[in-house]
């Protein structure tokens, strides 16, 4: 009888421990489960771009990968360790500050689709990127204006540029071929500019596509070569995010861009000052996450 009591005490302890542990595991999983909202994070990856989107049903999109492996750390914190799925990777254009971090993403994650253009680069990064795409047999989608990508039942990604599809040899400056996309949930829109310069902005305006957005990921790291006044007026964002490295050699973001945003009363945030910039929306309102 005495022995039986001791055993059941042990069993009770084991059960309590098991409950505690499974509780911890569930708490761990809980933080990654879809919450019915769209989360958009402009990562602080130094001088470059990497933007992570998580839709209300948990679809994951990574737009660009920054200049190095920093993005692996960022995405690693975003997803549970046992789940390596990324539904869509967008390479806006093949410059090193956008493509370099994507090579390891393709190799280490289960990337389902890659959206890109014909624009090429004569760099080892570009060759490695193509090699990784081939090795992993990833589905490649070519971007063009007017394309509508249904991320989930509620979240759409519309491609605004490139407006004209040019063969690789005709692309002089990859920035000109940047993929520009507008991600929408309900009445809230995010406009992701890549490094598109002002003439691409003007092409988008001329194409008559809707460009108004609550959040603008400012083009080309806040360079004065992007974000024209008319374009900004038409987008009329509440918030803007600038992805640029501290003390970068280009002087990004340029003062002209910051002045323009200020005059337009846009609340802007810089990765070099704020670190990761997180936004969240339920489709009706947008706020910092
Ligand atoms: Zn860039």
UniProtKB/TrEMBL annotation:
Domain Metallo-beta-lactamase stretches: 47-246
Pfam families tied to this protein: Lactamase_B
Protein name, UniProt field: Metallo-beta-lactamase domain-containing protein
Source species: Candidatus Doudnabacteria bacterium RIFCSPHIGHO2_01_FULL_50_11
Lineage: Bacteria, Candidatus Doudnaibacteriota
